[in-house]
Write a structure and sequence with these properties.
By secondary structure, the protein is mostly helical. The chain has one domain. Helix content is 63%, strand content 0%. The relative contact order is 0.14.
Length: 233
């Protein structure tokens, strides 16, 4: 239960409403974690929501810091804010840039480098650190954004893992009870941001609620009171 919320009893009638609105398929994984106890399964669903909410802000910090770091260093080295139109990107990245420009125009806004950079998704930036761009972008430009001289393959592998977490959260999928270690993911997020900016990493660490929520126990359920037997006629 998130801070400030009141207790909420999970009755059989409410369970039926949850299963109808959330879907049995989505809840099945939580019920399995709860060993078939559907009320505990709902508590685990609540916990998943709390931790997803807490981590999303940290992921936002990574995504915004990463894209601006890459944009700034490549634009500075090439002397062009619209560097993405000049460096010979692969077809998939050109398509991503074109879609970003279309979205900006559809919103009746002027296409500017800042808006393009903000519009393309995390996958675009992660692909720029992949092996395909090792000699054309990483070595001459992007590596300069990482003062700790982290190896490209290490960075790319880390970002692929965190992008997977980001996508699961964005699509409201389960992040608890699987192979992921969310405490390690949180540490990886902060460390990766610190590779770019220790100041931003320290700020996010000081202002997010993930450690507190990760340490919380499931809220206690009120006991189910069986109905009284009907009186004999």
């Amino acid at each position: 239960m998130a801070d400030g919320q009141v207790d909420f009893d999970i009755t059989d009638e409410r369970l039926k409403a949850f299963e109808k609105c959330i879907s049995p398929e989505r809840l099945a994984g939580y019920y399995a974690l709860a060993r078939g106890d559907r009320r505990i399964g709902i508590l685990l669903y609540e916990r998943n929501t709390e931790l997803s909410e807490a981590l999303y802000g940290v992921i936002q910090g990574l995504e915004v810091t990463l894209r601006n770091a890459i944009h700034n260093v490549v634009a500075d080295q090439l002397g062009a804010k619209d560097w993405y139109d000049k460096v010979g990107l692969a077809a998939s990245e050109v398509e991503a840039i074109d879609k970003a420009k279309e979205s900006i125009l559809e919103a009746a806004e002027i296409v500017t480098p800042g808006r393009v950079v903000a519009e393309v998704n995390l996958g675009f930036w992660v692909r720029l650190i992949g092996g395909y761009y090792d000699k054309t972008l990483w070595t001459p430009y992007i590596r300069r954004a990482f003062p700790l001289k982290v190896k490209r393959r290490v960075l790319h592998g880390r970002l692929m893992s965190l992008k997977s977490l980001r996508n699961r959260i964005a699509h409201h999928q389960r992040i608890i009870g699987g192979k992921r270690d969310l405490t390690q993911d949180y540490a990886d997020l902060l460390e990766t941001i610190a590779w770019i900016s220790p100041t931003v990493s320290e700020w996010i660490a000081a202002t997010n609620c993930f450690p507190v929520r990760a340490a919380k126990k499931l809220r206690k359920l009120n006991p189910v009171v069986p109905p009284l037997p009907s009186a004999p006629q």
